[in-house]
Amino acid sequence: DIACAYTQPPRPAGRGKQEQPSAVHRFAVEHGIAVRHPTSLREAAEQAAFAALDLDLAVVAAYGLILPKAVLQAPRHGCLNIHASLLPRWRGAAPIQRAILAGDSETGITIMQMDEGLDTGPILLSESVPIGPRTNAGELHDTLAALGARLIVEALARLAAGSLRPTPQPDEGATYAAKIDRSEMRIDWMRSAGELDRVVRAFAPAPGAWFELDGERIKVLAAEIADGAGSPGTVLDGRLTVACGDGALRLRTVQRAGRAPMAAEAFLRGRAVPAGTELA
Fold first, then answer.
1. Is 90 exceeded by the pLDDT of residue 13?
2. Is the distance from CB of 129 to CB of 93 less than 8 angstroms?
3. Of 34, 72, 176, 191, which has the fewest beta carbons less than 10 angstroms from its beta carbon?
4. Comparing C-alpha atoms, which of 24, 125, 122 is closest to residue 65?
């Protein structure tokens, strides 16, 4: 029985910038589930309201707010987190993007008993998934979301049956998935083609890695490593192959501001980018 759903407050969205409830908020209302959206859980009144729900357990997934000790301890069996990495690797805010940027060959879902640390609590369940050479962040997010949904249902059933025991996280192998900075999304052509391929995939389909062409910002949503060499940032041919610090990157899907994503071929039909063009 779901006592309540907590979600982020409504945010301005759309052309009119009217406040819109989150997808979680809308789903809860449609299914007759009570919903709350505090801006913080640090106030005593919010903590008292949470405790008054008299919960057996709380499930947390990408909530975006810090849970104080009083909230973590309010449910009889504490709070479980659905975390998108194989803890202790990639504790923190951006585990999906960091795994791709680092060139990891796999990641996964960890169901974790939350404590006051940053993703440091005991592990209840985990399962891995491969990160393919063309996997982008959007695809990986969707795969992990489905896996997380399945694993949390299994975890709840096993907890109820008394057959699930927490395992402390090892300190060895712990890494921190720092929040993504906007500067990381700009393509630095001095980097290797392999690195930039991972940058493109880590930020696709949103917010999108980008470069500048004659002062216009162009997003790159798909690319591939290609043969070629030259001065970094130089277009090498008529297929949007660009020289990098090591190797070359062929841009496959791009997006101009205010436009829909398009294949590189369609982009080039509307805007000539001859070999020798310098990209910034």
1. no
2. no
3. 34
4. 24
Q: Where are the alpha helices (DSSP H) in the chain?
A: 23-30, 44-51, 69-72, 95-101, 137-161, 193-202, 264-270
User: Which among 249, 246, 243, 245 is positioned nearest to 223, based on CA atoms?
Assistant: 249
Peptide bond before residue 205 is cis, with ω within 30 degrees of 0? yes
Angstrom distance (rounded) from CA 221 to CA 267: 13
Regarding pTM above 0.90, the answer is yes
Distance between CA atoms of residues 280 and 13, nearest Å = 31
Going by the DSSP 8-state scheme, the letter that residue 234 receives in this structure is B
User: And the tokens for 22?
Assistant: 């989150």
Residues pairing with 11 in the sheet: 20
Mean pLDDT over each residue of the chain, to the nearest integer? 96
Strand partners, 246: 192
At residue 157, what are phi and psi to the nearest 5 degrees?
Answer: -65, -40
With a pLDDT cut of 70, the percent of the chain lying above it is: 100
Confidence of residue 64 (pLDDT cuts 50, 70, 90): confident
What residue type is assigned to position 124 of the chain?
L
CB 60 within 8 A of CB 68: no
Tell me the residue ranges of DSSP E strands in the chain.
5-6, 11-13, 18-20, 35-36, 58-60, 79-83, 91-92, 106-113, 123-130, 176-177, 209-213, 216-226, 241-243, 248-256, 262-263
CA separation, residue 90 to residues 84, 87, 139, 170, 237 (Å) = 8, 7, 18, 13, 39
